[in-house]
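User: Can you model how zinc ion sits in this protein?
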Amino acid sequence: MRFREVALVALIGVVFAVVFALPMALSPTSARAAGGSGDGKAPAQGKEGSMTVQVKVFNKAGDLVGPFSTPKVVKTDAEWKAILTDEQFRITRDAGTERPFCGTLLDNKKEGVYACVCCGLPLFASNAKFNSGTGWPSFFQPIAKENVTEIEDRSHGMVRTEINCARCDGHLGHVFDDGPRPTGLRFCLNSESLAFTEQKDLASLADPLAETARGADSAAIGAAALAAGAKGGAGPGGRAEAVFAGGCFWCVEAVFEELDGVIEVVSGYAGGARETANYEAVCTGKTGHAEAVKIVYDPSKIDFATLLHVHFATHDPTTLNRQGNDSGPQYRSAIFYASDEEKRVAEAYIKELTDKKAFPKPIVTTLEPLKEFYPAEAYHQNYACNNPFNGYIKAVAMPKVDKVREKFKDRLKEVSPLEQPAGKR
Ligand SMILES: [Zn+2]
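Assistant: Here's the modeled complex, given as structure tokens:
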């Protein structure tokens, strides 16, 4: 026994020396037992251990390609300070945490990619972002498991899993096991650790690595696949979308955020042109837009028909171009259908409601083909959640939220996003 141990130690010594000098593809990982986000291919850990990692990057066509082997980015504190703000340095290089509800990317609902603010490595995509209610930008999976490393963090008397950029070891935040489907994980990020690039500008993230390391074991995950995930149907992780209008989007958003299976709800504009898809123009009532919401949902938990039922139970579909005191075509009741199937289901349900005289007056909800949905300005997102004491929210939105809570008791999230304890991290 003793002899074997001595031999083993010697062997480990040799292996360690070899590994130290070579790319660390063989290194052990910090794979989580049940997370599914780490595996044998995760990059090596440790600031001085490995000098090379495997990562995925964007090419000039806006496709995520790789994994490719690349040297780690290593800089002195002085060099980092020269390219980062004080706050970015404190968080990314010194494992700091920004205050909740203060990060600039918390309410960002644009489609695109979040990259490392230090080295530009793509880390997360908008189609995995969700409103966790914690006050920090949250995602249920990284854009590529290779690009985000995990390390046990025992600071502050807790055992947590710290997440870092694989290429530069920049601190990003932590990952927890209480996220939504499909992964059950919540990657909790600091806005300061991230730089956002819109989907249409993905080519600007092109990494020279994609061109030099072309071939080998590269597997392209197209921008198209990314878009499919956000566009409806069964994208990665099973996400679909529905676009409804029913008056002020603050209220409609708050209603749908309550439902289990709803991943996120974006307030925006539908029915008009891109050029005038802004709040000021839409308020004139002359742009053709309706204030609308895009509901991103998990079709294995909730379906389009149920979303329709909730919509008709929480707004008045009988008042033409009006919802309560809000009047004008921008407040019309509408279903923006993205497929013939959605149109068919909506028509059938309106007929059913009409046949059973569910409303005292005729339903005037319009069925309009969805051409494009334009997310509204950042301050409109999560408005009810961020402004609970606003008079309009208390008087108009909350009664609608109460309605969905009462009528769809068995379809609610366990904890309402409006009542998530702030600062849970
Ligand atoms: Zn980085």
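A couple of observations from the model: The domain at 28-227 is CATH 2.170.150.20 (Metal Binding Protein, Guanine Nucleotide Exchange Factor; Chain A). The pocket of zinc ion is lined by residues 116, 118-119, 121, 165, 167-168, 170 (CB under 6 Å).
User: Helpful, thanks.
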